Amino acid sequence: MKGIIKHTLKKVTLELVYQVVDERTTELIQKIDEVKRKQEDDFRYLVQKIDNEIGSVRNEIGQLRTEIGALNQRIDTIIQMLMTLRTDQK
């Protein structure tokens, strides 16, 4: 009789342990999935932010190129004016 009770108690205890392990495993898997989703969202956000910043930098570079082109034209005009003044003085 003691053996049957002992065996039954072990079986019930093991079943409870397995049940708790299953529940805990399910909880952990859910938490891991939540972390993965958050990381994916954060990654998408960062990629979008980087893309926006790159776009801004490209726009600024384009503006600088335009300004440099205008400055080069002014320099050419000044050089032409100086050449004209020089030839007029001779």
UniProtKB/TrEMBL annotation:
The lineage of its organism: Bacteria, Pseudomonadati, Planctomycetota, Candidatus Brocadiia, Candidatus Brocadiales. It comes from the Bacteria. It comes from Candidatus Jettenia caeni. This is Uncharacterized protein.
